[in-house]
UniProtKB/TrEMBL annotation:
Keywords: Signal. The lineage of its organism: Bacteria, Pseudomonadati, Bacteroidota, Flavobacteriia, Flavobacteriales. This is DUF4249 domain-containing protein. It comes from Flavobacterium beibuense F44-8. InterPro entries: DUF4249. Residues 1-18 form the signal peptide. The keyword Signal applies. Pfam families: DUF4249 (PF14054). The keyword Signal applies.
Length: 274
């Protein structure tokens, strides 16, 4: 009986090692393409905020090497407070729609309109202010185990109102930006910070940090996105669902678009790791 168990173990192990040598492509169902609207209007402190870009693409198959762009759409943003209309014109065949005369006004309400394939998509947001980034600190004993370089960026929260923030970090050791959603529930009127740490961060690396004010709805949207994107949970976890933003298809509500329309003031800072 022991010999049989041993042979079964060897057979199972050989299957495991053989399986590691093969590249397995899983057949995945591809849904009908949906419009994706990347409409983040960001007014960087110290600029006039006149140059803005909205990008239109569609969803595609998991193994497709390129993301299809959407050309020929009509895109404009309306300041609902003043009535001003800002037209976004496409750079030919790129899916990038550009406006060079946008006028950002803190606390004004803006509406996005996208007309594509005979259907109209809309969304509305208020332009939120953001505090200045006041300080940056490096900790060489950061991370969970105290063996990573950690960089913290600080700002002063406005205690007269409830605030929500989006923090974005760009570092060379990560292939994509790292996002964080924060609120001032436990820091009302106090100094707040966002941080990033990584085992591969080293002296000379540059950390790009961006801080933006957001609505509560976008805060919740970003929280959902980050939760879906985080790995883990095991084989019995609930499958991630599609996260929908504030975009509404006024023509056909079932043919919704992905993405989010937001307008915000942002502050940026670069820090060179010491």
């Amino acid at each position: 009986m022991k010999n049989i168990k041993f042979l079964l173990l060897l057979f199972t192990a050989s299957l495991a090692f053989t399986g590691c040598e093969d590249v397995i492509e899983v057949d995945l169902d591809t849904a009908e393409p949906r419009l994706v609207i990347d409409a983040s209007i960001e007014w960087i402190k110290g600029t006039d905020g006149s140059n803005q870009t909205i990008r239109l693409t569609t969803t595609t198959g998991y193994y497709e090497p390129e993301i299809p762009v959407v050309s020929g759409a009509t895109v404009f943003v309306t300041n609902n407070t003043s009535g001003a209309v800002f037209t976004f014109n496409e750079v030919p065949n790129t899916g990038n729609y550009v406006c060079t005369d946008f006028i950002p006004v803190i606390n004004d309400e803006y509406s996005l309109t996208v007309i594509n394939d005979g259907e109209t998509y809309t969304a509305t947001e208020k332009l939120f202010a953001v505090p200045e980034i006041s300080n940056v600190i490096q900790d060489d004993e950061g991370g969970v185990l105290g063996d990573e370089i950690e960089v913290r960026f600080f700002w002063q929260d406005n205690g007269a109102e409830v605030n929500y923030y989006m923090a974005r970090f760009d570092i060379d050791v990560l292939p994509y930006p790292d996002y964080d959603a924060l609120d001032d529930e436990f820091f009302q009127g106090n100094e707040m910070f966002a941080f990033i740490s990584h085992e591969d961060l080293k002296a000379g690396d540059i950390v790009h940090f961006k801080l933006g004010g957001t609505s509560e709805r976008f805060f919740n949207y970003l929280m959902q996105l980050t939760n879906v994107a985080e790995p883990g949970g095991g084989p019995f976890q609930t499958p991630p669902t599609s996260v929908r933003g504030n975009l509404v298809n006024e023509t056909n509500i079932d043919n919704y678009a992905y993405g989010y329309f937001r307008v915000t003031e942002v502050d940026i800072m670069e820090y060179t790791v010491q």
